[in-house]
Design goal:
The protein is of the alpha/beta class and 354 residues long. 39% of the residues lie in helices and 21% in strands. The protein is built from 13 helices and 14 strands. The longest helix is centred in the middle third of the chain and has 20 residues. The chain starts with 6 loop residues before the first strand and ends with a helix.
Length: 354
């Protein structure tokens, strides 16, 4: 009988109440052991170096040294999986995206004023992410930032609204830096739209799109319901909504976005919902890409893209922060090609220019 490995967790938060609450919550999982805590980033860096836990949960706003500086120092001296505990606000989104760039594995939303109820709602999410983080490989993403080109959005033309290929990408844990690396390697004039479902709340997806738009030559924006889809634009599916494709009588396409309060899917955006819709609308001219992430969202949709004759790509194990979704896609026969992250952009460009 194989003995289950205990996950050693270190908690960093300036609130004594929050440290205690998180410790009690995590101790409910028999596979998790709390090996220490810290009230600020400086204390965390010193203790983590000595204790060497399997996973760290890191608050962002703290005295003496904040979470970002502590994360940067930990990744420089003792790289290990770090989960940020962040505010689900626009400002919280910006700082959390900075943390993901610095090497954080994932994040969870910090409870608001209704503290007890919100902490209880965090339980399943946090436990799942700790288990995934414990199996991940800590790494500082190597982000390629291309020279910025100032772009003014032109009005849509017939040439821009008609295209041969559509690229759909799904990602979860570890996705933001992976997506950034892919988009930063693509030219501004790629002859296809790219639509991305990244597991993120509504307050994060617009900030993520704005960030990518500043870092990449290709234009990036958040998808809007009713919006006509154009080539040479990357669209980020809005959080807390399900995004699908719809066709007009003139053969242009637009987005349908429906609140997940109505759809009741586990993930919003759901990668499966996006992939199934792409396969239905674009058939064999669909290129589906599944990136790093835990679970199996997107696997059934990717398999459907393959069934209708589209191209399917899965990120390889070595470059995935969490090799969950790509592994499930490979095991279920949904992937035609397995590629390292640095090779995916080139494969996308080659496919859509055929």
């Amino acid at each position: 009988m194989t003995e289950t490995k205990t996950i050693r967790v270190f908690i960093v938060d300036d609130s004594a109440f929050m440290r205690t609450a998180l410790e009690r919550l995590l101790k409910e999982d028999p596979e998790i052991e709390i090996v220490g805590s810290a009230a600020n980033g400086k204390e965390a860096v010193e203790k983590v170096c000595r204790i060497k836990p399997d996973v760290v949960t890191m608050d962002i706003e703290m005295p003496v040294m904040d979470g970002l500086h502590a994360l940067k120092e930990i990744m420089r001296t003792n790289p290990m999986p770090v989960i940020m505990v962040s505010s689900l606000t626009q400002e919280g989104a910006k700082v959390t995206l900075d943390a993901l760039d610095l090497g954080a594995v994932d994040y969870v939303g910090k409870p608001g004023s209704a503290l007890t109820l919100n902490i209880l709602s965090l339980k399943l999410d946090l436990l799942a992410k700790i288990h995934a983080a414990a199996e991940s490989l800590p790494k500082i993403p190597r982000i390629t930032v291309v020279p910025l080109v100032q772009r003014r959005a032109p009005p849509p033309t017939d040439q821009q609204t008609h295209f041969e290929w559509v690229v759909v990408i799904g990602a979860s844990t570890g996705g933001p830096p992976a997506i950034q690396q892919i988009l930063a390697s693509l030219p501004a004039n790629i002859p296809a739209p790219i639509i991305i479902a990244q597991h993120m709340p509504r307050s994060f997806t617009n900030a993520f799109a704005q960030r990518l738009n500043l870092l990449c030559n290709i234009r990036v924006k958040e998808a809007v319901g009713g919006e006509t889809i154009q080539r040479s634009i990357t669209y980020i599916c809005p959080g807390d909504f399900q995004t699908r494709f719809m066709r007009r009588p003139d053969n242009t396409f637009y987005f349908s976005t429906v609140s997940n309060d109505i759809e009741k899917e586990r993930f919003a955006p759901s990668i499966d919902r996006l992939f199934f819709s792409a396969a239905e609308c674009f058939g064999r001219k669909t290129l589906g890409v599944i990136l790093t992430g835990m679970g199996e969202d997107g696997v059934r949709g990717l398999k459907n893209i393959k069934v209708v004759g589209g191209l399917t790509i899965g990120q390889d194990r070595a470059t995935s922060i969490v090799y969950g979704m790509p592994r499930a896609a490979l095991e279920q026969g949904a992937v035609a090609r397995i590629l390292a992250l640095p090779d995916i952009a080139g494969e996308i460009e080659l496919a859509v220019r055929k």
